[in-house]
Design goal:
elongated, 21% strand, 148 residues, alpha+beta
Length: 148
């Protein structure tokens, strides 16, 4: 991946709907050359997917919470993961090293809907400890990794 690929990726990170024509104008490359580079980046899996980022405030999902969970033993991980994958309000799930086994990010409407979700999660067999933190403000949010 060279500087030109990185310039193209920076433009796509800002706006995934940008056309090859617009990219070509901004990076001084022909439209066909931009198209070829995009195909190469997609085929090599550098570009994982194109997506739409929804505005949680407009969709009434203004409450964000982080929940840390410890499991009784590793054998219950599969059941835990199957259960949380069914929950639409769970945005992300990370397997951790340290005091907790997993951290999940939740986006929900309010404290009432958060409480209902937490009860469902805590009811999953094998969870022995949780710690939930409500996010007051998001100061930085990135949806993709840095190119540097």
């Amino acid at each position: 991946m060279d500087k030109m690929d990185k310039d193209i990726l920076r433009l796509l990170k800002k706006n995934a709907k940008i056309s090859a024509s617009e990219i070509s104008q901004q990076v001084n490359l022909s439209v066909s050359a931009v198209g070829e580079r995009l195909k190469k980046l997609e085929k090599s899996k550098v570009i994982k997917q194109y997506t739409t980022i929804l505005n949680p405030k407009i969709l009434n999902k203004e409450l964000t919470a982080l929940m840390f969970l410890s499991l009784e033993r590793p054998q219950v991980s599969e059941n835990f993961l199957d259960s949380i994958k069914k929950e639409e309000e769970i945005m992300d799930c990370y397997y951790l090293a340290g005091d907790f086994d997993y951290m999940i990010k939740i986006a929900t409407e309010n404290t009432f809907t958060l409480e209902k979700l937490l009860h469902r999660i805590k009811g999953i067999s094998g969870i022995v400890k949780t710690n939930t933190i409500v996010v007051l403000a998001t100061e930085k949010e990135s949806y993709s990794v840095s190119l540097d």
